[in-house]
Amino acid sequence: MGSSTIILDTRMGKVRGVDHGEVKEFLGLRYGLSTAGKRRFLPPVMAPKWNTTFDATQHPNQAMQPIKSQSIWPPVAGKVSEDCLFLNIVTPTTQDTPRPVLFWIHGGAFVSGSANEYDGSVLAAQGDVVVVTVNFRLGVLGFLDLSAEGPEYRHSASNGVLDIILALQWVRDNIQDYGGDPANVTLSGESSGGTLVLSLLAAPVADTLYHKAIAHSATCVFRQPSDRADALAKRLKVERSKFMAALLSLTGEEIVGLNIPAGVCIDGSVISRSSLNAIAERGAAGVPLMTGTNLREGTLYTNGDDASQAHYPSFNTGLAKEMLLGCDPHHYLAALDEAYPGLSDGKRHELIWTDMFRRICLLAAESATGAGTGGWLYRFDLPANLPQFQKLGATHSAEMAFTFNSFATPERDYKVYHDWRDPTVRQVAKVWSDTIIRFARTGQPNGGDLPHWPRYEDRQRHCLIINRDFKVQSDPDKLHRGLWQRGGNAK
Hints:
31% of the residues lie in helices and 16% in strands. The chain is α/β, with parallel strands linked by helices. It folds into 2 domains: 1-68 and 77-287, Rossmann fold (3-Layer(aba) Sandwich); 299-370 and 382-440 and 447-491, Alpha/Beta hydrolase fold, catalytic domain (Rossmann fold, 3-Layer(aba) Sandwich). The N and C termini lie far apart (53 Å).
């Protein structure tokens, strides 16, 4: 069946979308005013209603980010711009009983990525759910602490988080027009998107805007903000007193060119405490959490090679410190070498990356179970089987095509490491995506073709292993938990 346009009457005004038959797609809906020009570094502002028919048939702007000159992946639709506060909606129908909403936050180390990479049409049709993907400010524009530069910038370290919260408020107010249920919203995201999911759990202003959470390969917020103004003033070759004016005078491309790492922090106003503390403090008033990692997360960063790289030693220390939530990592690093004699530099780097994501997701799941809402932990083990990716195994982000069941529509694939022609790949994707849908609908993952998947707790430590089949294993992280304990944390 071909596609046609559809006109929808909404609270915001008339919207033109695309009717694909099984699903309706509304792309580039503006939830916030432009953050360019005088609004740079300021909190987002909700977009007003529109008077003419809003064209939602094309992918919107992506956030400002480095432009990849070469990539093995197809280009992503939408130009980069500081005017990036848009979201995309895919829905089975705008009629009938409102259905669960899966709200997706993309990854990309807080400096790259886009909602436009993700196609929610299979999930929408397969599970009768509404899928929302969101663009938000990245890098310096979304996460630079400028609170010392004046009260108007007091939230600047969390601007990217505030963007997402504004999008959630937009969903609360408008998603019913698109067939969604504002009382059944599931936060979900991968990598830095998963970290943002866990960070939103610690943002009180967002507490009423979602009802479940899924965090793939996430870390958690625990750091305090850091003032980089002095260092940036030196880089810009201006006096400290003229730093803010100089920063505002730069183009978006020049700001991206500063190449400054970004991330979330406990700013004290938007994010009030660490993710783990928030889960514990909220207790039964919190939300169910499904979280997990991939067996060989780190091969994405080593390309599966054993060879050494100049940046590995310092990077290893930083990653291990992140894993241990700021604690001294040297005992852990020594324990890792003891556990794996003759470890190559590449393999060590891979394992540290993998442990960083793994330990934090384990702690988050355990904390959610302890809080009473329930935490479920998985590990994705199915190795890549496309020839060019076989040495990566089950690498970071490889489960995304399974989460969105991209193999059902291979002509629309974006990033895949597995061969859609393999019937086992298609079956695993169907079972896993059904699990995602079930959790979004009910707040627990069990049913369908899954074996019974208990909550993760500190006795049996049940974990769902996703491979050519699905099985539940008790404490698959026993060895590495011992290494983490050597790092000074008893988990």
